[in-house]
Design goal:
Layout: E1 5-6, H1 15-33, H2 39-55, E2 60-61, H3 69-80, H4 85-93, H5 96-99, H6 104-111, H7 113-122, H8 133-150, H9 153-167, H10 174-194, H11 198-212, H12 214-249, E3 254-258, H13 262-272, H14 276-280, E4 283-289, H15 292-305, E5 307-308, E6 314-315, E7 328-333, E8 339-346, H16 347-355, H17 359-362, H18 368-390, H19 394-404, E9 409-413, E10 419-423, H20 428-435, H21 437-441, E11 443-448, E12 451-453, E13 465-469, H22 486-516, H23 527-536, H24 542-550, H25 556-563, E14 579-581, E15 589-591, E16 603-608, E17 612-617, E18 634-638, E19 646-655, H26 660-670, E20 675-683, E21 687-696, H27 699-710, E22 715-720
Parallel strand pairs: 4-8, 14-18, 15-17
Antiparallel strand pairs: 1-2, 3-4, 5-7, 6-7, 7-8, 9-10, 11-12, 11-13, 16-17, 16-18, 19-21, 19-22, 20-21
Helix pairs in contact: 1-2, 1-3, 2-4, 3-4, 3-9, 4-7, 4-9, 6-7, 7-8, 7-9, 8-18, 8-19, 9-11, 10-11, 11-12, 12-13, 12-15, 18-22, 19-22, 20-22, 22-24, 22-25
Length: 723
């Protein structure tokens, strides 16, 4: 049921009064609809009202009013947007499939497939069980977003529904009020902004802010009311100066002063750590003119009237925002140095700026701007669909879409001159994934304005970015630390999950073969025995079982016992040979940071749930408790030629003499090692203890390094650190 509603039963005698009152309200709606819909369409809306009133009969909202008032109010919001008849019918019916005995088949029979799909897209997943509220919210959001990709009108009904719920939020319990307000500010207001519906977005933000932070809202509202009186004179002076300049130039324009809403003021104060006076001491104006040429002419007039602030001009007409928004933005030094923000746009651009994708229905014939807003919305939703296909679960999907909902854009060029829009803070890796998932997965370097740059470089508007790829390259887990876009994050995680699974299956097979030896190998186990165990453990197949073993979720010895339990195996000696490791097994084999094992160290493997096999030194204190529990660890040994390099901590006590640190670093570099980290542990008047984390190929390499370091005169003591 929509927020703010509970089902209660009303006495039979009250039905007539309720019906009369509701009919009075629906007549208002029909009167509004008659201004832009055909009579047959208005009749269809009225039929939907009668259907919904019957379905919701006996239900009340928390405010005590009949429930039908809510669908009517949602329909009114849609009517004010001048939406089509089917959208308004869906708005009236939007809670029937969720909260009443009405099912989809009946809606199809009464109002057709199109309306039923719209209603179904808005309805929550009420019949499924979820482990938590967060999972339920995420799954409902995923379902709604998938419905939107099929029909954009689903989100318009949902936004209208949320808007009326926010307007009537006062009757809710404080905790529920805060939860709904938080969800509105985090999800629905950003969606409205992403779709260019600024009027809806502003109201959702204002109502959400008031419900989530009532005291802050009240303090800011009082401060604005107090400061407003002092601004009137300055505001009038600026307006007069602009009007005089317009008359002199003979330009027709609609001039309006704009006042930031309280949520925008609060957000700016918080993000930029500014006092109220500095945020509110900005005068904002909007100039709406006839055509694009006049927009640029007006920009020149404004820059002649007041000096522009360098670096504060943005041309969203030449390069529109991702949601289709177009306008010229400039900041000027006004009287007494007061900052003045000016937006210049055409009437058409102004309509799209306020209504976004709803303008497509509001102004249908030949409106290129609203069609462009629709196209951009569909482009964004196409990206959302890609995120959904790669996301592991609904919570991950919700988090990644949230990232895409706050996109202060930057604009980059491909080498061919195409423009790509990305959120502020995006890196070269985000750019690569925006071009194509395959480009992102195989990128190895980037050229920014023809110069090589690290993949983690944050991009700025106007740059030309070229991505260099290599056929054998693959995503690096470290990229997740700096990518910004939901598509990049989801694609990297999806690739790594598949990669990790393959590696886990391979390691699991090796561990299970070792646990089964010498009696038999996995290939010799009868298939029916494997199938029986897989079915008993409720897994999809042998690979899932092997992946579980490789990821440390199941012990190979226990699985082997159940697979290899044969009478003639009872006296077979166990396989005591250690598992050989190279150190390059991938994501399912890792090295413990507590003891930093390196080739040549006696080591043991400890299965860790989700991480696979974690390698420790035998002498590590963290595995001491497992020594008497052979089922908790696995004997491992290094292959004769292990690959890669391994970090190891070396503690050096050195005399406090100039150049000591440089001498130590030179020796380490001379032996082909890198210094990954340096920390100063103890320091007194004569000596300093320094811990270096260096890369090494094994114990022999480390021993050679320590011998060379001992020869440095300033080195007083050297040892391998335990952690």
């Amino acid at each position: 049921m929509g927020e703010g509603a509970i089902t209660t039963t009303v006495p039979t005698g009250a039905a007539t009064d309720v019906e009369d009152l509701a009919r009075f309200r629906v007549s208002d709606l029909c009167e509004l609809l008659e201004t832009f819909l055909d009579p047959e369409q208005v009749a269809e809306v009225y039929k939907a009202y009668l259907f919904a009133a019957e379905a919701h009969e006996g239900q009340h909202r928390m405010s005590g009013e009949p429930y039908i008032f809510h669908p009517l109010a949602v329909a009114r919001v849609m009517a004010e947007m001048r939406m089509d008849a089917k959208s308004i019918v869906a708005a009236i019916l939007h809670d029937t499939m969720e909260d009443t005995h009405v099912d989809k088949a009946r809606v199809v029979a009464e109002f057709g497939e199109e309306v039923a799909e719209l209603v179904d897209g808005v309805s929550k997943l009420t019949h499924l069980k979820f482990q938590s509220k967060a999972e339920a919210q995420a799954e409902n959001f995923r379902k709604m977003m998938l419905a939107i990709t099929r029909d954009l009108r689903v989100i318009l009904v949902k936004l209208a529904d949320r808007l009326h719920n926010m307007r009537t939020l006062g009757v809710m319990r404080p905790d529920k009020r805060r939860r709904i307000a938080k969800e509105t500010l985090e999800i629905y207001a950003p969606i409205a902004q992403r779709l260019g519906m600024n009027a809806v977005r502003r109201e959702l933000e204002q109502l959400g802010f008031a419900a989530l932070y009532p005291r802050r809202y009240r303090v800011l509202a009082e401060a604005v009311a107090k400061a407003r009186g002092n601004r009137k004179e300055v505001l009038q002076k600026i307006e007069n100066a602009i009007n005089v300049r317009l008359q002199e130039a003979g330009v027709e324009a609609r001039l309006a002063s704009r006042e930031k809403n309280l949520h925008s003021i609060y957000k700016k104060m918080k993000q930029k750590r500014l006092p109220f006076a500095e945020v509110y001491d900005v005068f904002a104006f909007r100039l709406v003119v006839r055509d694009v040429d006049t927009c640029y002419r007006m920009l020149g007039l404004m820059h002649n009237l007041y000096k522009p602030v360098p670096g504060r001009f943005k041309d969203y007409i030449a390069i529109p925002k991702a949601n289709g928004y177009q306008s010229l933005h400039t900041v000027l030094f006004g009287p007494h140095g007061i900052p003045i923000e000016v937006q210049i746009r055409t009437e058409e651009m102004d309509r799209v700026a306020e209504s976004g994708i709803a303008a497509h229905w509001l102004y249908k014939a030949g409106d290129s701007e609203s069609s462009r807003a629709q196209a951009r919305a569909r482009e964004w939703l196409k990206g959302v669909l890609e995120i959904q296909q790669s996301a592991g679960n609904s919570i991950e999907f919700l988090e990644n879409v949230k990232v895409d909902l706050f996109p202060e854009e930057v604009y980059m060029f491909t080498p061919n001159g195409d423009i790509l829009e990305l959120p502020r803070g995006s890196t070269a890796v985000d750019f690569a994934y925006a071009v194509h998932s395959d480009v992102g997965n195989t990128c190895v370097a980037a050229k920014i304005d023809r110069r090589l740059a690290p993949l983690s470089t944050q991009l700025e508007s106007g740059q030309t970015v070229e991505i260099i790829t290599a056929p054998g390259a693959r995503p690096n887990p470290a990229w997740l630390a700096f990518v910004v876009t939901g598509k990049a994050r989801t694609s990297i995680r999806h690739y790594l999950k598949n990669l990790q699974r393959d590696e886990a299956v391979n390691l699991g097979r090796r561990l299970l073969d070792k646990a089964l030896a010498p009696a038999l190998t996995l290939d010799e186990v009868p298939p029916e025995r494997i199938e029986a165990l897989v079915k008993e453990l409720n897994l999809s197949g042998l690979d899932s079982l092997l992946a579980d073993i490789g990821l440390g979720n199941r012990m190979a010895q226990l699985v082997a016992r159940r697979l290899g339990a044969r009478e003639d195996d009872a006296g077979s000696p166990a396989d005591t040979r250690p598992l050989a490791i190279k150190g390059t097994e991938g994501m399912v084999l890792s090295f413990a940071k507590c003891c930093n094992p390196i080739p040549g160290d006696p080591v043991v493997g400890v299965p860790s749930a989700g991480r696979g096999l974690v390698i420790h030194r035998e002498a590590c204190r963290n595995v001491a408790e497992y020594r008497d529990k052979p089922d908790k660890w696995i004997a491992v040994e290094w292959t004769p030629e292990p690959g890669s390099e391994y970090p190891v901590a070396v503690r050096i006590q050195t005399a406090n003499k100039r150049g000591a640190l440089a001498s130590i670093a030179a020796v380490i570099a001379d032996l082909g090692s890198n210094i990954d980290n340096v920390s100063f542990d103890e320091r007194d008047g004569t000596s300093t203890t320094i811990t270096f984390t260096v890369s090494t190929q094994g114990r022999r390499h480390l021993a050679a390094m320590m011998r060379r370091l001992r020869r440095i005169p300033e080195v007083m003591k050297i040892s391998r650190a335990k952690g």
